[in-house]
Amino acid sequence: MSAPLIKGWCPGALRPMETGDGLVVRVRAHGGRLSQDQARGLADLAKRHGNGLIDLSARANLQLRGITDHAAIVGGLAEIGLIDADQASETRRNILVTPFWRQDDGAQKLARDLTEALAASDLPLPGKFGFALDTGENPVLRDSSADIRIERAGHGYHVLADGALSSAPATMRNAIATALDLARWFVESGGVHDGRGRMRKHLAQGAALPANFACPLEAATPFSPSPGLTPQGRMVALEFGQIHAETLAALANLAPLRLTPWRMLLLEGCDHQPALPGLIIAPDDPLLRVVACTGAPGCSQALGPVRDLARQLAPSVPSGGMLHVSGCLKGCAHPGAADITLVARGEDFALGYDCKAQDANHSSHPKADLLANPTLLMTRT
Ligand code: SF4
Q1: What is the 3-state secondary structure (H, E, C) of 317-374?
Q2: What's the pTM value of the predicted model, to 2 decimals?
Q3: Pocket flag, ligand 1, residue 60 (CB < 6 Å)
Q4: Domain range spanning residue 119?
Q5: Atom 6, ligand 1: which residue's CA is nearest?
Q6: Total structural domains in the chain?
Q7: pLDDT, tens digit (0-9, with 9 covering 90-100), for 323-356
Q8: Residue 314's pLDDT is what?
Q9: pLDDT on residue 5
């Protein structure tokens, strides 16, 4: 298998990326929330200037696919308040917000303050460097990609570096400054190489945190997201993290939308259970046990289509297990290890267990064999 191309940067609204089905434009909602007008506007832009498909990324951003008129998209996004002043501000505004924030818990103020601080900053942070505002009663974003995290601690907060076992105490007044100081320490202590770098790797290579990051970190209660009713509204999952513009427009008529990094949307303040195409509303739906990237033909690097196979194999995946079907070794849909992994390589799929896409090398099977005999997925010996 040929090595996939590593681009080392993420698309944005101002910096689209060319893929197999046209341009991809990534939209970063402020505070992880779309008002009803913004959600309707996005759906309309996706229909008029794209192929109508919208991805929800693992960083809770939305990607409009198949864009044919980028200038029209930029103009449309500006009208609904979803565009940054310039590319540098957009790239730096990598902020994940817990979808379980409450009006009075300070999360949205922290998001606004961090947005302003990053826009005013001259820090040369890597494109993938990000922040998580995980300020609910319990942290829920520890498994989501971020380099600097702000979490609730008693009546205040703590700021922690991803991968560290200790944190710095903070208040609403100084939490953002503490986070920015940590970002500056990351840059000045050599965390960035050729424009790339992540906090966890920097610490693993022996970098010692500043002295104020010395409070022992408590283990978080395990969190497992699921469709259903929450105190903040109803969560619905998206098949393969993708939604059609028509479905997004229908959801926009129900409630403002909070974006999550789990391929789910939270319908703010809504207890209605919407039955719309492509939505998963039952927590035991087999489709929640499979992840699959765009694959062919939408991704130019894909060595085969993947989603139909994943959909058909889903009922064969044991409850509690996860099947990852990837279009190439890059494993975009699930960068970590999965219980079962299939990687397209032309006519066949490489099968692996408890591994990342790049390590799937247990055996190899044609798609037709996997569909005719799904127990092949369980032949670990
Ligand atoms: S993993 Fe999938 S989406 Fe990512 S580059 Fe490979 S084929 Fe494309």
Answers
A1: CCCCCCEEEECCCCCCCCCCCEEEEEEEECCEEEEEEEECHHHCCCEEEEHHHHHHCH
A2: 0.93
A3: no
A4: 101-135+143-216
A5: 328
A6: 3
A7: 999 999 999 999 899 999 999 998 899 999 999 9
A8: 97
A9: 54
